[in-house]
Amino acid sequence: MCWLFNIAQKKCIMHMCGLKIQSRRIIRLIWLDCDISMDEMQFLESVYELAVSYLEDKGTLVDYQNFDSLEKITDTKLQVGPMPYEKILQDIQHYLKYCVRTNQSGFMNPLWGGINTVALAGEFLTSLTNTSMYTFELAPIGTVIEKSIISKMLGYVGYPDGAGTFTTGGSNGNMLGMLCARLKNNPVGMQTGYDNRNLVALVSEESHYSVVMAGNVIGIGKENIISIKSDQFGRMRADALTEEIQYLKAEGKEVFCVVATSGTTVKGSFDPLKELAEVCFRENIWLHVDAAWGGSALLSSKHTHLMDGIDLADSVCWDAHKMMGIPLICSSFLVKDESILARVCNHTKSAHYLFQSEDRTNDLGHYSLQCGRRNDALKLFLAWRQKGDEGWSKLIDSYMESADYIESKISHHPRLELVSPREWTNICFRYTSEVIDENTLNKELRKRLMQNGSFMVSKAMIDGMYIIRLVISNPEITLSSLDHFIEEVVRLGEEIEKELPHR
């Protein structure tokens, strides 16, 4: 680590003195004091230069190739003997040439994007130190940092006596929420097993597919994950939830969990948590909230109301690698009752060789399904230190302002149509036409946007309509880049109308 800082220091001093000495010569100056080989140093220096070039490249978003073409031009052979560093550098160059440049303004496809410089430094340090987070003994400073971050996030959701852990993503967080719910429903089931044929979980019809996956993994069965009707805004209806619970009870079913969504994947809708919590409290049902996408609304002074009622839920997952812009993966699971998470993850007797601390709360493996788990808290911690609460609030508010802007542009354009009301930064729209099939047109339009390499947006089906969905969660997006996007959409739409057969 020290050699990297030495390089940076010496580069800075030499620049100030007006000296033009190449980086490779600087490496040679410190080589004698390091265990790392000269070839390794030169390799790392070259990787650094490639990374800088990647960040400086403001060209196309992606050099689009289909799979067959890309497979043909990519050397993926894993040979028996070692390969020289020069060939590895060529592999890196090839990768950077054909990857999607998620740090560019045209990247508006998934629910993440851009680069947080401080978090990027944290990601590097995480790999450098290569720590696993299951015991304090192995990760002393990492444990202190993770507990601090979890405590901060618990404060935002209103769980003063709660607990939490970092997970592999919102999908894992949703599964943990359902495991906690199952344990509360049947406390002895962890030892005796579960007969899940009568257990049912209720979810929003706009919920993420991971909830159905979780039902399969924990043995509930996909058929016992039942969707509840949403309103015109894509929000779960509390009255429909109540009706379904009563119907299922009459059928001999037992509802053990309700999964609400704060920030649905397509529409960006927020379920009415207070109303749903009232139903769950009355029926003694665990309420888990999938806030992987929308949880960051809690950071905003203007938009935190979208999460009203989160303190009434029993558990929540919240992805910092989405709206907060932390490098993948950085996701938290938070639970109101610490003891339930501890019991779900209880493996102390089986792992007698692992845990050494007398204070079990400081061995984070007691609160995780994983044993080997990387330190994902460090990059979030450093980014939070740099931004502060106020910085996060400004970031979220700026995204919402940009979403307001593009929503207005689309609403007032004669050829574009919003197809869903907006709560978050998801913009669902389509290009309209009177002469050709609109689903065909918009499918082709999105394809050409991708192939041209300037913009990447997602798609979805809403009420039988093929729609284009753009998401504002990338700090590189500007009002001018949004203007350019609209211009490109309209240009391609007009072009396609001329080319495709009319109906």
Notes on the protein architecture:
- It is a single chain.
- The chain has helices spanning 2-16, 23-31, 38-56, 67-73, 85-98, 117-129, 140-157, 170-185, 189-192, 210-217, 238-250, 273-283, 338-344, 377-411, 438-452, 479-499; strands spanning 107-108, 163-167, 199-204, 225-228, 254-261, 286-290, 315-319, 331-335, 416-418, 426-431, 456-462, 465-471.
- By secondary structure, the chain is of the alpha/beta class.
- The chain folds into three domains: 2-97, no CATH class; 160-345, 3-Layer(aba) Sandwich (Aspartate Aminotransferase, domain 2); 388-499, Aspartate Aminotransferase, domain 1.
- It has a seven-stranded mixed sheet with strand order 2-8-7-6-5-3-4, with helices on both faces. Strands 1-11-12-10-9 form a five-stranded mixed sheet.
Write the layout of secondary structure elements.
Layout: H1 2-16, H2 23-31, H3 38-56, H4 67-73, H5 85-98, E1 107-108, H6 117-129, H7 140-157, E2 163-167, H8 170-185, H9 189-192, E3 199-204, H10 210-217, E4 225-228, H11 238-250, E5 254-261, H12 273-283, E6 286-290, E7 315-319, E8 331-335, H13 338-344, H14 377-411, E9 416-418, E10 426-431, H15 438-452, E11 456-462, E12 465-471, H16 479-499
Helix pairs in contact: 1-2, 2-3, 3-5, 6-14, 7-14, 8-10, 8-13, 14-16, 15-16
